[in-house]
Amino acid sequence: MDKENLLKSLSMKINECKRCGLWKNAFHAVPGEGNPDAKVLFLGEAPGFHEDQQGRPFVGQAGKLLTSLLELIGMKRDQVFITNVIKHRPPDNRDPSQNEIGSCNIWVDSQIEIIKPTVIVTLGRYSLNKFLKGAKISNAHGKPIRLSSKVILPMYHPAAALRSEFIASQFKRDFQINEGLLKDPDNEIEKISKEADENQMSLF
Ligand code: URA
Q1: pLDDT digits over 95-108, tens only?
Q2: Cα–Cα distance, 135 to 67 (Å, whole number)
Q3: pLDDT at 196 over 90
Q4: Which of 20, 60, 81, 158 could be disulfide-bonded to 34 (CB atoms 3.0-4.6 Å)?
C-alpha cells in the first residue's frame, strides 16, 4: 500500500478508537491531515472545539495563526502534515492525562512511521515532551535538535501565542529563523548536526 492509503486506513482506525475514554464526549476524532510525502510534520496537543466539530486539526484561531505563519515563509498547509498527540478532544479543553497520552501514542508513532518526516515541529509542551522528556519550551523553542535520523524543532503552541504578545513575537521569529529548515530540510540537516550538541545543553 502507498503512504496515502496507509494513512487513510490508519485514520479509519483512529476514528473508531476507544483506547481511552475521550471518544465518549467527542463529536469527531481528529486523525490529522496533509501531504503523505511531507518532509515536515507539525505535532500539536489535542483538538479543540472547532477541530472536534469538523474532524480536522488546527482549524480554529490557533490554526489560522499557524497557517498564516506558514504562508509568511512561503509555505502552504498542504505541503506539510498536521496532527496532534491526542486524537479526541478532552472535555472543556482540559490538559490530557498521562494515560490518555499513552493510549494515543500508537497513532502518532504510526503516522510518523508512515510519513517518515525529516523534521517534526512540536507545538507546545506535550508534543515537545514526547521526544525530549523534561525539556522546557521557554529554553528549547526555535532550536532544532537532531534525534537519530530526524530533527525535532520545538515551538510554542499557537494558542499560547494568541494569549501573549511576547510569545507571539517569539513564535513568528522561530518560523523566520528556521525558514530554510522548514522549506528544504534535507539540505539543512547536515548543518544542524554540527550545532545540535551546543543547543542540547541549554534545553532543560
Ligand atoms: N490545538 C491543538 O493542539 N491542536 C489542534 O488541532 C487545535 C488546537
Answers
A1: 999 999 999 999 99
A2: 26
A3: no
A4: 81
